[in-house]
Amino acid sequence: MIQKIPWLALSLLLATNITLGGFLSALHEHWSAWAVVSLCILLLGAVLSCSWATMRDSFAYLLASDFKAFLVAVLVAFLGVVIVFWLHTFAHLLVIICAFLLAKIDLQAANFSDRQIFRTICFISLLGLFLGGLINYLISTLILE
């Protein structure tokens, strides 16, 4: 079983989330920002661990009527403006999403179930997030003393 685990993809996922945790820790964010980021990681893990057919059906439902398609088009236009305005932040988010997708594809290739993929991705991501915060906290306290 251990030989089936895609270590490289999970290491990249861990590294990206350690970077995110260090970034949040360096900003000295309130605990609520950590909670929001943790919930976003769980949400992203849930969305990306579902099957492609479920995702396809969800997007087809969003575009089923003209009104829903209009709302989706307005939302996409708004997100396009936000992406251009915060391009640096979006680039970091895109790297995290790519690491999630790489881990998902490699875990699927290793015949993991959707539930195992969700648990593995979320565990590695949250571990990396809090390790990054801990490492940054320890470095900042050791340097200041």
Task: Write a compact overview of the structure shown.
By secondary structure, the protein is mainly α. The chain is 86% helix and 0% strand.
Description:
This protein has 145 residues and is mainly α. 86% of the residues lie in helices and 0% in strands. The protein contains six helices and no strands. α1 packs antiparallel against α5 (87-109) and α1 (7-26) packs across α6 (114-144). It is flat. The termini are far apart.
Task: Please give a handful of descriptors for the protein shown.
145 residues; mainly alpha; 0% strand
List the helices and strands and how they pair.
Elements: H1 7-26, H2 31-49, H3 52-62, H4 66-85, H5 87-109, H6 114-144
Helix pairs in contact: 1-5, 1-6, 2-5, 2-6, 5-6
